[in-house]
């Protein structure tokens, strides 16, 4: 069902929620949600332990949200936490199980990426990214 909302923010939030559901459904066989997959990939990207604060900055999120998501991954044995340079800092690294899970999830994520690209087409996908970048820079 195609929905339209008078509020631009609601329209974008609804589209984001719908897209998140698509990715989560495609990733379901791996046991990951798209937020977890992106977090694991972000940790693996630098091939080193990363602090929760650094991850939050890298992903454009707040530290408490990243911390909650990390604790779910710890619970599931996909990452481990260790103390950082001081008592308040925690660093995160991906476990062997986490690496195996990411390897399983990657082709599923690629499938979702391809589906989005096929749905929008190259030109519209490029335009969407440009428009979203403009909104990120918006200030009142």
Could you walk me through the main structural features you see in this protein, from its secondary elements to its overall organization?
- With 140 residues, the protein is mainly alpha-helical.
- A hairpin with a 6-residue loop joins strand 2 (79-83) and strand 3.
- A three-stranded antiparallel sheet has the order 1-3-2.
- Helix 2 (34-45) packs across helix 5 (96-120), helix 3 crosses helix 4 (63-75) and helix 5 crosses helix 6 (122-136).
- It is globular and about 45 Å long.
- The model has no long low-confidence stretch (mean pLDDT 92).
- It has helices at 8-27, 34-45, 52-59, 63-75, 96-120, 122-136, and strands spanning 50-51, 79-83, 90-94.
- The relative contact order is 0.12.
- 66% of the residues lie in helices and 9% in strands.
